[in-house]
Design goal:
Keywords (chains A, B): DNA-binding
Structural class of chain A: mainly alpha
Number of helices of chain A: 8
Distance between the termini of chain A: 52 Å
Order of helices and strands of chain A: HHHHHHHH
Radius of gyration of chain A: 20 Å
CATH class of the largest domain in chain A: Mainly Alpha
Protein name (chains A, B): TetR/AcrR family transcriptional regulator
Pfam family, one (chains A, B): TetR_N
Number of domains of chain A: 2
Oligomer: homodimer
Shape of chain A: elongated
Strand content of chain A: under 5%
Largest sheet of chain A: none
DNA sequence: AGCTTTCTCAACACCGTGTCGAAAATTCAC
DNA sequence: GTGAATTTTCGACACGGTGTTGAGAAAGCT
């Protein structure tokens, strides 16, 4: 699985593997992961149940692969704001908008992968890497801003984790209760909430990009 | 099961039922709920596996009962602050401290009951009631404060839900990574984070109980 | 005591998981 | 193309946990 697998044309098996991942993404949209049987997954990819084990060790391993393929996608969303300087509410809101869209589509399994406390070792490993990465980037941005003079109310890593968690859980909640809130309102509220959480600023302060005062 | 069960001495069966709940609380501390077998639960309460089904329909039903018994406990924690007026940081912090203590002890199953997206119908029902109740109370407090002149940055119910979720997920995280942060620091940060989230105030404003300005 | 309700548990059927090994399909070298 | 090597497929099996049933033991009541 590590380095050796590199140079080779996409053989039949590779296609099947990808078919399995794609099938999983589709099937996991419909029912909770626990309810999905391996038989179902295999069937959706056009192979027999026992054939599944040729490609993945377990349902969790397949989910881990699925999560892994979403890594790049998720990163990109926030990249703009994370790289930016100052508050830049617009960039943040754009990132959150993209995230919400992704969750609206794949929320069902995203929840189970990112929110569930104990999703099994394979998934846990991949997702922890992903989360850590997100938190670290966030944390760095906070520190950067702190050095630029903007007050940050607490340990950057803790604040970053809270912000990241607030984001996921709000998206998860939005998926679970689709009609509960107007989408724009939710995004605005979340954007402001994060800014308030991280910088302690109120909407009035957004325009003035001047750091300085406490 | 509903109303009729009321007036009666605690018969043998009632004791067993409670023993089962207590046993579950203990067992669920050690391993994740999915890993615990009904056989184990029954054994811990001193009965045969098949006897379990006389008392509960499933593992989830037992967990639901366990969650239900914690209702009162959890309510009480936040009651003081929820009933108070003004910011009252101290009361909030006391409540959060109690919550963290509870999560430190029972975090394992609390996570699985309150964080897991799809914990089965029985648990979902109980916990949703509990969460709704918490959010409503919180929301009411926000509205009350808004009328008293304190600015609230967004729809009260949304803000309340965010605050409640932030609380749970921070506790869950604290349980999962015990040594990651100093406990006092975590509580202070969380307290301030919630106040910032809900009222947009910074620590400086805590003492002055004067509402007014934006 | 007798009768009724409550409780207990062994035996059973069921379903999903994961393993194995033999056969079929594919790929590769010539 | 042809044959050997490799990859892929799948039926059959063993295992473990769930939930049900029905007969009988224990507890509660008068």
């Amino acid at each position: 699985m590590p380095a050796i697998k590199s140079r080779r044309a996409p053989t039949k098996g590779d296609q099947r593997e990808q078919a399995l991942v794609d099938a999983a993404r589709a099937v996991f949209r419909e029912k909770s992961i626990a309810q999905v049987t391996i038989d179902e997954l295999a069937g959706a990819a056009g192979i027999a149940r026992s054939g599944f084990y040729f490609y993945f060790e377990s349902k969790q391993a397949l989910l881990a692969a699925l999560v892994d393929q979403n890594l790049a996608e998720a990163d990109l969303e926030m990249a703009e704001w994370l790289a930016a300087d100052g508050i830049d509410r617009d960039a943040l809101r754009r990132g959150l908008t993209a995230g919400l869209a992704r969750w609206k589509a794949d929320g069902r399994w995203l929840r189970e992968a990112f929110i569930t406390p104990d999703p099994g070792p394979e998934v846990k490993h991949v997702r922890d890497r992903l989360i850590d990465q997100g938190c670290t980037l966030f944390s760095k941005r906070i520190e950067r801003d702190a050095q630029a003079g903007r007050t940050v109310p607490g340990p950057p890593d803790l604040i970053a984790k809270m912000a990241v968690n607030l984001r996921s859980i709000t998206f998860a909640d939005a998926y679970a209760n689709p009609g509960a809130h107007n989408e724009d309102e939710l995004l605005d509220t979340l954007t402001d909430a994060i800014l308030r959480l991280v910088y302690g600023v109120t909407p009035a302060a957004y325009d003035e990009d001047a750091p300085t005062a406490a």
